[in-house]
UniProtKB/TrEMBL annotation:
It comes from the Eukaryota. Gene3D superfamilies: Winged helix-like DNA-binding domain superfamily/Winged helix DNA-binding domain (1.10.10.10). This is Sleeping Beauty transposase HTH domain-containing protein. It comes from Anguilla anguilla. Residues 1-53 form the Sleeping Beauty transposase HTH domain.
Length: 75
């Protein structure tokens, strides 16, 4: 299953942090960039804890079902 829509450009993230460091709140940032307030909060929270906003691979065991679906695995 693909991930949800990701923030496409590094430039948008750069703008987000410039606005945040200027002292604006989540609501002002979300209106300025056209992102949801929860998305803005999640990106800033990730940046605070990890120091980066790069998407890391998911943890866990790889799926046994091929990406095409279960219909191809039945006899």
């Amino acid at each position: 299953m693909p991930r949800s829509k990701e923030i496409p450009e590094e430039r948008e993230k750069k703008d987000l942090f410039e606005i945040y460091q200027a002292g604006k709140g989540y609501k002002a940032i979300s209106k300025a960039l056209g992102l949801h307030q929860t998305t803005v909060r999640a990106i800033i929270s990730k940046w605070r804890t990890l120091g980066t906003v790069v998407n890391h691979p998911w943890s866990g065991w790889p799926a046994k079902i091929p990406p095409r679906g279960t219909a191809t695995t039945h006899p």
